[in-house]
Amino acid sequence: MADAAVRLEESWRQALTPEFSSGYMQSLKEFLLAEKQAGKHIFPKGSEYFRALDLTPLDAVKVVILGQDPYHGAGQAHGLCFSVQPGVRIPPSLVNIYKEMQSDLGIPPARHGFLESWAKQGVLLLNSVLTVEEGRAAAHQGRGWERFTDAVIRTVNERCDHVVFLLWGSYAQKKAAFVDTSRHLVLKSVHPSPLSAHGGFFGCRHFSKANEWLAMQGRTPVDWRLPETVERP
What we know:
Layout: H1 2-7, H2 10-15, H3 17-20, H4 23-37, E1 42-43, H5 51-55, E2 63-67, H6 92-105, H7 116-119, E3 123-127, E4 132-133, H8 145-159, E5 164-168, H9 170-175, E6 185-189, H10 206-216
Parallel strand pairs: 2-3, 2-5, 5-6
Antiparallel strand pairs: 1-4
């Protein structure tokens, strides 16, 4: 994990140095190494564990969207929550996110699920757990990632101003419960999963509300419209 820290985007590397030097991260590194040596397939690939941070420097963060676990199917996860690689079927929760965007902003649903253009505009697409074993959802929960991503959220809360937190579902809301609402905007709804989206995600208008608030703070709104076609780097 230490070599990954060296490659990490500089502002995050500096802010998170205490985490990378801690015992829990060393234990996490040893766990991941043992899993790989045992022949298990881990997603996303190692160079993309911190992709969300690499694409969205600390001083560029405008919006934080919290997910829980990477997708555990082959070829899906690439380090951004809710996002999948080009050419991969759009997951059900993201389909519902697109539906709400269309209702809220009139943006037609994209034909892909690759969300890097959001990340490059300052949308931190952060999962709580950054790795998973193929075919085993939540296999890496409780191994230390949650503590690390708590530190990421705490860093945004303390060092950034005027950030919108989109907290979809009880898990995300509990994880970011400490966010200072006097400095940041916190928008909550149920999760966009097909199991819950009709209970309050549809109609939440979080995308327009986020942009309206950012504009009020003198920050450039997010262009939520995704490119029509994408190629994976």
